Amino acid sequence: MLQYNLEQRKGSSLYGELVRLMRADIASGKISADEHLPSKRDFARSLGVSVITVEHAYQQLIAEGYVRAVERKGYFANDIGSFVPSQIYSRQSGQGIAGASAPVGSDVATSSIPGLASSAWFPSGLRCSSGRESTEGPACESYRYDLTGGVAPGSFPRRAWARLLRDVVEDASDEVLLKAAPATGVRELKEEIARHVARFRGMEVHPSQVVVGAGSQVFYALLSQLLGPLGSFAVEDPGYSTLAQAYRAQGLEVQLIPIDGGGIDVASLRASGASIAHVMPSHHFPTGVVMPISRRYELLGWASESPDRYIIEDDYDCEFRHQGHPIPALQGIDAGERVIYLNTFARSLAPSLRLGYMVLPPHLMRRFERVLGFYSSSVSTVEQLVLARFMSQGHFDTHVNRMRRRYREVRDAALSVVDEAGLVVSGKDAGLHFVLDCGTRLDEARLVARLSEQGVKVRTMGEYRHGATRASDNTQLVVCYSGLDAVDSSAAMRLVCGEIAAVRA
Amino acid sequence: MLQYNLEQRKGSSLYGELVRLMRADIASGKISADEHLPSKRDFARSLGVSVITVEHAYQQLIAEGYVRAVERKGYFANDIGSFVPSQIYSRQSGQGIAGASAPVGSDVATSSIPGLASSAWFPSGLRCSSGRESTEGPACESYRYDLTGGVAPGSFPRRAWARLLRDVVEDASDEVLLKAAPATGVRELKEEIARHVARFRGMEVHPSQVVVGAGSQVFYALLSQLLGPLGSFAVEDPGYSTLAQAYRAQGLEVQLIPIDGGGIDVASLRASGASIAHVMPSHHFPTGVVMPISRRYELLGWASESPDRYIIEDDYDCEFRHQGHPIPALQGIDAGERVIYLNTFARSLAPSLRLGYMVLPPHLMRRFERVLGFYSSSVSTVEQLVLARFMSQGHFDTHVNRMRRRYREVRDAALSVVDEAGLVVSGKDAGLHFVLDCGTRLDEARLVARLSEQGVKVRTMGEYRHGATRASDNTQLVVCYSGLDAVDSSAAMRLVCGEIAAVRA
Fold first, then answer.
1. How many CA atoms lie within 13 A of B212 on its CB side?
2. Which residue of A128, A129, A170, A179 is the best one to mutate when testing the B interface, meaning the one whose CB has the most B CBs within 10 A?
3. Given pLDDT bands bounded at 50, 70 and 90, which one contains residue A81?
4. Cβ contacts of residue B242 below 8 Å, gap of 6+?
5. How many Å apart are CA A236 and CA A213, to the nearest integer?
6. Strand A356-359 and strand B430-431: pairing?
7. Torsion angle, CA of A151/A153/A157/A163, rounded to 10 degrees?
8. Which residues on chain A are in Cβ contact (under 8 Å) with B353?
C-alpha cells in the first residue's frame, strides 16, 4: 500500500498535499504506469484521513490526467512519462515531479484512456465566448435568454471600483498621470499579477515577465509581431473563431489542428509545420476538454524540438473551476522557456474593462523589450493602478470567490432541469458553460430557429467547427450560462429541453 | 478693390468670415493666382472693419497657404488651383471652395513661394514627442529640465475626471458595464468626437465613421491590417521615429519620403511606389512645417490616382495653435474618401489615458466592419463614457483653452530668453515645441553632453532624420517645452543658450 506522510505539509490542505505527492511519484515513475492504486476506503484508513479527502485527491488527479478511473475496477496511474522532457526534473520539485523517468514508448495518448472523454470523472470545462464576441451588437439584446455568454448582471463590484478610481485619480503623482505607461504596463499591477499567478496557477513568475494589455486581442497583435516571423500559427478546431480571424488579420498563416479527448493532436500539429501553437489546456473552448499531464508533456516536447517553436497557453476563465483545485498551468511545468501564458480579467471582472496580461519566458521578454519596447501600454495608467489596488486589498480574491459560488448556483439550476429531462452534459465542472448532448442528430437549424422564437439564443457545437475535427454524431449545444441568474437559467433550460424534445419527436 | 459682405456671417467672427470667403475665391479662381491683394489699411476701410481684423485674416490665409506676404510689396494670392481635384468642388461650399478651376500647370510647389519656410508669416508648428516616447523610462527622471516633452505638471483635471468616473461606474447599466464595447467604440463618445471635429477641425463626420482606440499605436496596428494588403506605407523624413518602427513591426514595407518647406514631397512619394502616405499636415513633427493648401490638393491628387491610395492624416496636437484659427483638417477637403484622420487625447488630456480616435471615409468604415469588426474595443467602456461626459459637459473645451493659455505662457518665457540671446527659432506658433537654430554647425554630441551635465535633456533635429532629407547647415535643437512651467522653461533656456554660446566659442 502506498504511504505518505501528510503531516509535513506547509499550509496546504491534506487533499492538496496528497495530490502534490502523488503527482510527483507518478511523474517520476515511483508509481508505475498502470499501477492499480488503493481503493479510496483502504487508502483513507492507511493515511489516517477521511474517504472524502482521498476521493477529492483522486478526482483532481483524474482531472489533471495523472490517474484514471475504470468502472468496477478502481483507480490506475496513467503513463505520462514518455513525454516528460528531462530538463523539467530539475525545476519541478515544487509541483512534485522530482524523480527519474517513466517507461518510454507506451501508448499514452489520452484519447486511449478508456472512458476519458465522457466519464463523469473527467471534469472538462467550457468557456463562454460572449465577453469576446459581444461585437455582434444589438441583435442579442432582443433575446430573453442569451445562452451565448455574458457576465452575471449585478456582479460588477461598482462600489469598490468607484472608490479606488477616485482614490487613484486623487492620489497618483503627476509623473504617473501625465505619462503613458511603458509597453509592459505599470509596475504595481505587474507585481500583483505575478503574486496572483503564483498563488492560483502555480507559476513562478518575476513581475518583469508580465505584459499588461487591453484584452486578449492586443496580445494576439503583439504576439503576431513578436513571433510571426518564426512561422505559421496553429489553433485548435473546434475553437474560438475570433482567434484564427485575428491572426489572419495580422497577415499570418493559420493552421487548424484537430483536438481529441486530450486536447490538441500533437501528431497533426507536428505534421502541419506550424511553429506557434495557441492552445487552451486548462479547459478548451468550446469542447471543455482538459489537457491531461501526458499530453502537456507531449506538447512541451514538440515545442522543445526547435528554438522557433512556442506554445501560447490561453488560460481564459481558469478562475472558474467548480470542483477541486484549479488545474495547474502548463506554464508552471515549462522549463524550456517555450510557454507564453495569456489571461484576461474579462470574465473574472468585466469584459468592458479591457484588461489582460501575458507572461513571457525571460528570453522572449528581452526580445519583446528590444523589438516592441517602443510601444506605450495599451491600458490607461489609472485603470492599471485601480486593478493593482483591487488585487492587493484582497477585493479580487473575494470577488472571484463570490462569482464562482454564484456561477455554480446558476449552473446547478440549469443542470437540474437537464437532469430531469434525461439529457446528458459534459464539461460542467469548469468554466462558465457546458455542452448539452441532444442524444441524437437533430435538424439544428430548426432547433436554433425554434429556440430563437422562444427568446433563447444558443449556439451549436457545429458553429465552432472549422473542418479539422470530425463532427460528433449527436447534435450538441454549447450552453453558456454566465449571463443569467439561477431563475432565468432554469427557465431557459426548460425551453431548451422542451424544444429538443419537440424537434426529436 | 475686393468687396465682401461680412454682415451675413452666421455666428463666426468677422475675421473668420473674411478668411472663409477669401479661401473660396482663391480656390475657385475668382481671385486669380498671384493677384495683388489690397493693403491691410485700405481693405479694412473698404470692409468697414478694423485693421487688426484684416491682419488676422491675412495671417491665417498665409498659414494655410492661400496667400503670401512679400516684403515691401504686400500680399498676393497663391496659385493653388492646379491640384484641386474637380470632384472636390461639389462638396466644398462649406469651406468656400465652390467655383471653377484655377489655372493649371503653373509652378505651385510651396517651396517655391518666396520666404515661405523661414518667414515669420509662416507659423509652423512642432509637436513634442514625449507623450508617445515615454517608454524610454526612468532615464529622463534624472533630468532637471526635460525638453523632450511631457505634459505640464498639475494640468490633469483630476476633480472633474474623478467625479465623472464615480458617476459613470455608479450610473452605467449592467448591459454597458458587463460587455466589451464594439470594435469602433461606445456610441456616446463617437457622437461627441464627431461634434468636436466638426466645430474645431471643419470636418463633416457621421459618428459611425469614428473608431475609438487605446492610443495611436492601436490605430497603426488596425490600419496595417486594414490597408497593409494594398502596398507599402510612406512616412515623412525627418519624422517621428516610432511611426516607421510600428509599421515595420507589423511586417509592412516603409518608405521614407523627404519633406520640404511645404511638407511631404509628392513627386518623391509618387516615385516611391507607396500606396499609403502617413503625413502630419497641420504641423509636422519635428520640423513644424504646415502643409499649405496647394500641397494638400497635390497630395489629394496623388491619392485620387489609384483606388489603392490613402492618406493618413495624423493631427496630433492640433489643439495647440497659438496664433489665429486652427488650420482646417485635410480630411475636410477630401471629397474622394481618401483621407483617414487620426488624433489622440494624449496631449489635450493625458498620455496615460490611452485614448484616441480615427475617422474613416464611409467606404473604408464598411470595410473595417467587415474585416476587423470582430474585434472588441481596445478602450475600457467606463473611460469612454467618462470622456463623452467630459466633452458633452464642456469640460474638454475649457481644459484645452486653459492648457493653450498655459502653454503659450511657457513658450513665451522660453522665447524671451532665446530672443535675448540673439538666436532664431521657427515653428513657434503651433504645437508644443519650436526649433532653435544654433546659428552655425556645432559639435552636437558635445552640446548635448554639456547640457545633460547641466540637467537639461534635449534632442537635435538630426535625431529625427533618417536619411531621406538633407540635413540643414546649422545645428538645430527641437525644444519641447510642454513638460515645464514658465519659470523652469526660462531657466532651462538660459542653460541651453549659455551652452550654445560656450560650444560656439
1. 31
2. A179
3. low
4. A374, A375, B129, B132, B133, B217
5. 23
6. unpaired
7. 120
8. 380-382
Q: What would the pLDDT profile of A350-409 be if each residue is shown by its tens digit?
A: 889 999 999 999 999 999 999 999 999 999 999 999 999 999 999 999 999 999 999 999
Q: Position of cell 496615460? A: B352
Compute the distance between CA of residue B73 and CA of residue A132 in angstroms, rounded to an integer.
65
Q: Which positions ≥6 away from A261 have C-beta within 8 Å? A: A110, A111, A113, A116, A117, A122, A289
Helix (H) or strand (E) holding B431: strand B430-431
What is the torsion angle, in degrees rounded to the nearest 10, for the CA atoms of residue A230, residue A232, residue A235 and residue A238?
A: -170
Q: Cα(A62)–Cα(A370) distance, rounded to whole angstroms?
A: 42
How far B356 CA sits from the closest chain A CA (Å)?
11
CA dist A218 and A358 (Å) reads 10
Residue B346 has pLDDT above 60, yes or no: yes
CB–CB contact A353 B377 (8 Å): no
Chain B contacts of A170, Cβ < 8 Å? 158, 162
Q: Above 60 in pLDDT, residue B447? A: yes
User: Between the CA of residue B115 and those of B62, B71, B111, what are the distances in Å?
Assistant: 12, 9, 9
Closest CA to A412 of A431, A401, A399, A428: A428
Sequence-distant (6+) residues with CB within 8 A of A315 are A201, A280, A281, A282, A329, A341, A342, A343
Mean pLDDT calculated for residue range B242-246: 90
Q: What is the pLDDT of residue A82?
A: 56
Residue A410 and residue A487: Cα distance in Å, rounded? 8
How far apart are the two ends of chain A, measured CA to CA in Å? Answer: 53
Nearest to A250 by CA among B289, B374, B415, B333: B374
Nearest to B158 among A134, A155, A170 (CB): A170
The answer to whether ipTM exceeds 0.90 is no
- Nearest-angstrom CA–CA distance, B188 and B178: 17
Burial classification of residue B86, based on how many CB atoms lie within 10 Å of its CB (0-12 exposed, 13-18 middle, 19 or more buried): exposed
| Of B70-79, B93-102, B165-174, B448-457, the least confident | B93-102
Is the separation of the CB atoms in A108 and A78 below 8 Å? yes
pLDDT of residue B458: 94
Decide if A350 and B218 are in contact by the 8 Å CB cutoff: no
pLDDT in tens, A444-479: 889 999 999 999 999 999 889 887 667 778 999 999
List of E strands, B86-161: 125-126, 145-146
Cα B98 to Cα B94: distance, rounded to the nearest angstrom: 8
Phi, psi dihedrals of residue B457, rounded to the nearest 5°: -105, 125
Task: Say how far apart CA A187 and CA A206 lie, in whole Å.
Answer: 11
| Candidate from A24-28, A124-128, B30-34, B360-364 with smallest mean pLDDT | A124-128
DSSP helix, strand, coil percent of chain A (3-state; round to 5):
45, 15, 40
Give the Cα separation of B338 and B307 in Å (integer). Answer: 8
How close A376 gets to chain B, by Cα (Å)?
A: 6
Region A228-253: mean pLDDT is 91
CB contact burial B349-385 (16+ within 10 A = b; e otherwise): bbbbbbbbbbbbbeebbeebbebbbbbbbbbbbbbbb
- Cα dihedral sign, A171-A177-A178-A182: positive
pLDDT band at B169 (very low <50, low <70, confident <90, very high): very high
Which pLDDT score, from 0 to 100, does residue A194 have? 96
- List B283's β-bridge partners, or say none: none
Residue B184's closest chain A neighbor by CA? A135
Give the sign of the dihedral formed by CA A270, CA A273, CA A279, CA A285.
negative
Backbone angles phi, psi at A314, to 5 degrees: -90, 105
In this predicted structure, what is the pLDDT of residue A83?
53
The answer to whether the CB atoms of B170 and A158 lie below 8 A apart is: yes
